[in-house]
Specification:
This protein is α/β, with parallel strands linked by helices. It is built from seven helices and nine strands.
């Protein structure tokens, strides 16, 4: 998979993709991430990419011209499955969205900044808008990092255990069951006996039950999908 990220502050995204699972995905050649500084596509001597909004009001708006130039240049090199704008009013990111995007080949992510982007960008250049939550960030860079991580870990070969991602919370609209590791007893707190029994079918049954119980208690809204 190849992901191009358009941003005015590429420095914010260098660290998240240089460590842990995302670095492993890159080292294995399973995921390539290219950062593009939007200021490089400005024809202004000051590398300006934002301007005052028409009609007045507080906050600067990202201009359409440099964004269009950047996206057009990228599209000359490859075809893209989606051009995504990270926006607080976009489709809420969930596991279903991450699963869908992990099956794509090429993506462009546009990170918003300031007051947002000229509406014509959203109308004519963007194919999908995604939000990571009902709150506002200073820019879309952190949201882009979250989105890429949620996608990248699903790519075949990225995780050491291929079944690990399939057992994550939300894959089946249930929260993952409790997990334990050594020691089996600590300060009198014991690991459930079933997990040390070696009875694989019973363990699977226990985990399924615990997932349902935990979901019902903590995220009952997810159970609507099972009704």
């Amino acid at each position: 998979m190849h992901i191009d990220i358009i941003t005015v502050v590429p420095e914010l995204l260098e660290s998240p993709f240089s460590h842990s699972i995302m670095k492993r995905a890159s080292d294995k050649g399973l995921l390539t991430i290219a950062l593009h500084n939007l200021r490089n596509y400005s024809k202004n001597n000051y590398k300006q990419v934002d301007d005052y909004q028409y009609g007045g009001g507080a906050g600067m708006v990202m201009m359409i011209e440099p964004i269009d130039r950047c996206i057009s240049e990228l599209k000359e090199k490859r075809d893209y499955d989606e051009v995504i704008y990270l926006s607080p009013d976009g489709e809420l990111l969930n596991q279903k969205v991450a699963n869908y995007l992990s099956l794509q080949k090429n993506l462009i992510l546009l990170c918003g900044h300031y007051k947002g982007v000229d509406e014509r960008v959203r109308e004519h250049l963007i194919t999908k808008e995604i939000s990571i939550g009902n709150y506002v960030l200073s820019g879309g860079e952190l949201a882009a990092a979250v989105l890429v991580d949620s996608i990248g870990r699903l790519l075949p070969g990225v995780l050491n255990n291929e079944t690990s991602a399939l057992e994550d919370s939300f894959q089946d609209n249930l929260i993952a069951p409790p997990v334990y590791t050594r020691p089996a007893e600590y300060k009198g707190w014991k690991v459930p006996d079933i997990l040390t029994s070696g009875n694989t079918p019973k363990i699977a049954e226990w985990r399924a039950e615990q997932s349902f119980i935990r979901t019902k208690k903590r995220r009952p809204d997810l159970l609507k999908e099972h009704e």
